[in-house]
Structure formats: structure tokens, C-alpha cells
Design brief:
The chain is an alpha/beta fold and 319 residues long. It has nine helices and eight strands. The longest helix is centred in the last third of the chain and has 32 residues.
Length: 319
């Protein structure tokens, strides 16, 4: 690869997008060839039940990673990222709403400003009103919890330097919050306005379950972002607060005992035990489990998904 040539791996997760794969592949191919990129296109078939895989096999050049079932978009991105071989990784959706013509803009923004990550911003979204409303609410919540300075973390059109993913595994709905995770690790993050197109074919896979999962992951990442290296600051602070409530309830209990009130006539003794034990046990356990689970994926070879097969057309992508 010549010094002035760009080596890019383009990763697209697919789930029942049989009507879009050919058009999307042709658009990406045209952009890459017009700009003389050294490139690879990686489709990750996330357990499609239609003809997505069969129609993709007819396209060239292309690598297809086929998952055994529908593990979700985050798992599909993770599988594609781990298979990428070029210095720049570009991610995008498979519904043709992201515009491949924005790829040069992402590369230019990253190199000109010496960013490690550049996220697309769909400033003029072509989605339904309800979807835009939910996205706006999620943005406000994310800004409050994470403060990643990204307007549109839900936009899949992003570019990363490959080293951003050294030692990083993705699960849940975490693909939306990769910039926040990397920002916490010291990587430089940028943003640029990109084109957003309406969906012409296929059915949107967005639903309320993904929203709920995204919010839960957002809270977990907020905790990880702030307390991963010092969890005792959070757990200890919460513990002291609960102990304070316990002592307060205990003081009321003791006062009632002094004035002769029977312990069976009041709930204060039970509240004392509750504040000392139950509150911290349930809430803190959930956070500890999240940290342990993340550590499990980072330090072992286990993944949250299973690959069925990898199909690669032998034609070269550097044309």
C-alpha cells in the first residue's frame, strides 16, 4: 500500500436486508474505486431469515461473516471489527439510509483534525416522528449520564482507527456508545454532519426493546466511565449513605424503646435492618456483576455470539 493510499475496512451488519445488499455494495464499491482506496467490504449476516446471505454471495469483492442466529447489531459489529485488516474501520447500517458518499468526508475529518474517531451526525434525519422523539430523549439522557459531546451516537456511520479496538469487546447495545468508551480511554473524538436518506426498501428493525436495552447499557457505561478504576468511591459512598439511613432509623427505634413503645407496634426496627442490608445488596450487586462481565469478555476469548461460517469472494478489493 502506497503512503498516500487509504486502507479501509467497511463493516455493515445485516438482518433481513435482501433488497438492499446489492445497491449498498455497488454504492460503496463506486466510492472506493473513485477515490482509489485499498479496501475490503465486510457484510455481517446477523442470522437473516430471508435471502440476504444468498444475494450477498453474488457480490464481489466481499467478505461475509454469517452468524448462527440473530445476536444483535452490537455483536455483528464486533465480529466484523475483529475480522478487519486495514488501518481505518468504517461502520454503517445495511438499510441504505447511511450514504457511502460520506466516507471521504469521514476520512478527511479524521486526518485533518488528528482524531481517533469521527462520528456521523444525522442533523436532518429522515425517520418517523416517534423515532426522532425517542432519539432526542435518549440524547438528553446520554448527555446527562455520559457527556460524550456527540449529538447523534445512534448514527452507525463512523470511522475509527483500528487500534481503538485493541482489547475491546462489544456486547448488549454498546455499539451506540463506543465513542464514550474510547473517550474514557483517552482517544480523541470528532463529529461531522452526514447525509441521511429515507428507507426505501425493507422494514426497520428498531423497537422499544432496543430502546430499553440501550438505556440500561447507557447507565452501565456511565458507571464504568466514572468508576471503573475506582469502584470503591461509588460503592463506599452508597454504603455510607445507607448506613446513615440505618443509623437514623435505629435512633428512632431506640427512642421509641425509651418511651416504652413496643417494637412490634412500629416498622422502624425493620427499616433499620432494611437500610443496613437490603438496599445496598441489590443495587450494588447489579453494578458489580456488570464490571465482572465486562472483565470476562476482555480477558478471555469468549464472545457473546457464534459464527456459523465466513464466505469470501476471491476477487481483490484494491481495484
Amino acid at each position: 500500500m502506497k503512503e498516500d493510499q487509504k486502507g479501509i475496512s467497511i463493516i455493515i451488519p445485516l438482518f433481513n436486508e435482501q433488497d438492499n445488499v446489492s445497491l449498498l455494495h455497488n454504492e460503496i464499491l463506486e466510492v472506493c474505486r473513485n477515490h482509489h482506496y485499498i479496501f475490503e467490504i465486510i457484510f455481517v449476516d446477523d442470522g437473516s431469515t430471508d435471502e440476504t446471505f444468498e444475494r450477498s454471495k453474488a457480490l464481489s469483492p466481499l467478505k461475509i461473516i454469517r452468524l448462527r442466529k440473530n445476536f444483535g447489531q452490537t455483536a455483528a459489529f464486533d465480529a466484523g471489527i475483529k475480522a478487519a485488516k486495514y488501518p481505518y474501520i468504517i461502520t454503517m447500517d445495511g438499510d441504505c439510509q447511511n450514504d457511502p458518499n460520506d466516507i471521504p468526508l469521514l476520512i478527511e475529518t479524521l486526518e485533518k483534525n488528528r482524531f481517533d474517531i469521527v462520528s456521523g451526525w444525522r442533523k436532518k434525519r429522515k425517520d418517523s416522528l416517534s423515532k426522532r422523539f425517542i432519539s432526542r430523549v435518549a440524547h438528553r439522557l446520554r448527555y446527562f449520564l455520559i457527556k460524550d459531546q456527540i449529538h447523534d451516537s445512534g448514527c452507525s456511520l463512523k470511522i475509527y482507527k483500528k487500534e481503538c479496538f485493541d482489547g475491546l469487546s462489544l456486547y448488549g447495545e454498546m455499539h451506540r456508545f463506543i465513542p464514550a468508551l474510547l473517550m474514557g480511554a483517552g482517544y480523541r473524538i470528532g463529529e461531522t454532519i452526514v447525509n441521511h436518506r429515507p428507507r426505501y426498501k425493507g422494514v426497520s428493525k428498531y423497537n422499544w426493546k432496543r430502546t430499553v436495552k440501550g438505556i440500561v447499557d447507557m447507565m452501565a457505561i456511565a458507571f464504568w466511565h466514572k468508576f471503573a478504576s475506582r469502584p470503591l468511591h461509588f460503592l463506599g459512598g452508597l454504603g455510607l449513605l445507607l448506613i446513615f439511613f440505618g443509623f437514623s432509623a435505629g435512633a428512632v427505634t431506640f427512642y421509641n424503646f425509651l418511651i416504652g413503645q413496643g417494637m412490634s407496634e412500629t416498622a422502624w426496627p425493620l427499616l433499620t435492618v432494611f437500610f443496613f442490608l437490603a438496599g445496598g445488596q441489590f443495587f450494588v450487586s447489579g453494578l458489580i456483576i456488570d464490571v465482572l462481565l465486562r472483565n470476562h469478555y476482555e480477558t478471555t476469548r469468549n464472545k457473546a455470539y457464534s459464527i456459523k461460517e465466513i464466505w469470501q469472494n476471491e476477487a481483490s478489493g484494491n481495484q
